[in-house]
Amino acid sequence: MTDVDVIEDPATAVVALDPVRARLLAELAEPRSAAMLATRVGLPRQKVNYHLRALEAHGLVRVAEERRWGGLTERLLVASAASYLVSPQALGPAAPRAASDEALSAGYVLALAARVVREVGAAQRTSAPLETLGLDTELRFADAEARAAFARDLASAVTALASRYHDPDGDEAHRLVVAVHPIPEEAP
After folding, report:
1. Beta strand residue intervals within 90-139, DSSP E
2. Is 24 exposed, middle or buried (0-12, 13-18, 19+ CB in 10 A)?
């Protein structure tokens, strides 16, 4: 089971975003049968089976084990990933695209985040092991002038580091994305 599976197919996104199916996916962190799930989510087993078939058809769950009980076979299913992320790619032509002249806009930052999801999701499916690096920090600025100075210093430092380590003949291209944004008050 992967930690995060990136969903790019629009039909698979629709299946995963259904509230009942999303709940079933969360419950399938460990193998469970339709009867076990029905008890946990408070739905009839037949209805749970209907949703499980849709999840299985889109590769979101798989059979973990089959048990024989007399003349019946009980299937235990498990989610294909611990969690899921719907790629903006699922929106097709309506997916965000970054315009180069909007570097200070929220739309640009969102488009960059969308590209990271799209590219890392695609690389995750084709690369093993995938070499990544993630940095995350919180900072507070005294005022707009300090924020502008930080932006200049950050751009200068990143440019210097990129120049020092970039090898045009290197074996694999990597993308570096840096985003600075206010943290919403309701964020954990």
Report:
1. none
2. buried
Three-class DSSP category at 7 = strand
Domain ranges of the chain: 2-84, 87-165
Give pTM, 2 decimals: 0.78
CB atoms within 10 A of CB 38: 17
Distance of CA 60 to the CA centre of its chain: 14
DSSP-derived 3-state class of residue 40: helix
Q: Quote the DSSP letter at residue 62.
A: E
> Does domain 2-84 match CATH 3.40.190.10?
no
Buried/exposed 127-148: b ≥16 CB within 10 Å, e otherwise: eeeeeeeeeeeeeeeeeeeeee
Q: Which two tokens stand for residue 156?
A: 């200068």
pLDDT at 183: 85
Q: Could you tell me which residues are beta bridge partners of residue 84?
A: 5
DSSP at 90: G
Cα distances from 128 to residues 51, 125, 131, 182, in angstroms, run 32, 8, 8, 34
Helix axes 45-57, 10-17, angle to 10 degrees: 160
- Per residue in 100-159, pLDDT tens? 667 778 888 888 888 889 888 888 888 677 888 899 999 999 999 999 999 999 999 999
